[in-house]
Specification:
The protein is of the alpha/beta class. The chain is built from nine helices and eight strands. The chain has helices spanning about 15-30, 30-35, 45-50, 50-55, 70-80, 95-105, 145-160, 175-180, 185-205, and strands spanning about 60-65, 85-90, 115-120, 130-135, 160-170, 205-210, 215-225, 250. The chain has an eight-stranded mixed β-sheet. The longest helix has 21 residues, at about 185-205.
Length: about 250
């Protein structure tokens, strides 16, 4: 287990979930655009985002988490990664990275995984490593279309051929911005939606709805083609088809 030095966070008797929630809310007040929400990902959303890791077990995996926040999804990854795996955690906010370092230092599950916390933007991450799974916690609909293009291109570049990207999008954000935001903001959101729709049509293998989250969210899984010569294929899993059973909605 490795981590970037000289960053620590105090332990709290209130427990990680409550203190993470307050930390997340403070950062949302500072800058909601880059934080993306007023609360960290719930357990149901974290499980859904990390399902590609469970699906590829039990062999050791190389996994990248981008936009880790206070570590809600990081904890789920650590509990699911097979022994001997590698996890690179990327977070730009220095206050969040301090908490992530503390999490890595204290989580029992991290003892069997090589974990590195990087304080960086994912598009600026200096690495030649390729990953089996990339899990994104970034609030893509809050970014400019140019930023989203760079991030998505970087994600696909970081994946092994056949590797999986999972990411989420909150429900109703475009409608809310259309109703309450400026026209320029609504146009920006619509342009980002167009970019993401193009990636979904080309690479998606499934989408699930997680209602037990604040706010509710869709989770998308995209797969990098096995070879550059692979033709674009239709979705391997029809949208809304659940992983196990039910109506495609996860609680």
């Amino acid at each position: 287990m490795t981590h970037t030095p000289a960053r620590t966070a105090p332990a709290s008797a209130a427990g990680p979930v409550r203190t993470d929630g307050w930390a997340f809310l403070r950062e949302a007040v500072r800058d909601l655009r880059t934080t993306g929400a007023v609360a960290p990902s719930g357990q149901a959303l974290a499980r859904s985002l990390t399902d590609p890791v469970r699906a590829r077990s039990p062999r050791p995996l190389a996994v990248l988490e981008a936009g880790a926040g206070t570590g809600a999804v990081t904890r789920a990854l650590l509990s699911r990664l097979p022994r001997g795996s590698r996890l690179d955690v990327v977070e730009a906010n220095p206050r969040f990275t301090a908490r992530l370092d503390h999490l890595v230092d204290t989580a029992p599950a991290a003892r069997h995984t090589r974990v590195t916390v990087h304080q960086a933007l994912v598009e600026d991450l200096a690495t030649d490593r390729r990953y089996d799974v990339v899990v994104s916690g970034l609030p893509l609909t809050n970014f400019t279309p140019e930023q989203v293009e760079r991030i998505m291109a970087r994600y696909l570049d970081l994946l092994h051929p056949g590797g999986t990207l999972s990411y989420f999008a909150y429900l109703g954000t475009r409608r809310a911005r259309t109703l309450f935001a400026s026209r320029a903001e609504a146009r920006r959101h619509a342009a980002v939606d167009e970019i993401m729709t193009a990636y979904q049509h080309r690479y998606a293998t499934g989408r699930w709805t997680v209602l037990a989250n604040l706010p509710p969210a869709h989770v998308w899984e995209l797969r990098r083609p096995e070879t550059p010569a692979d033709r674009v294929r239709p979705l391997a899993t029809p949208l809304g088809v659940p992983r196990a059973q039910g109506d495609g909605v996860l609680w």
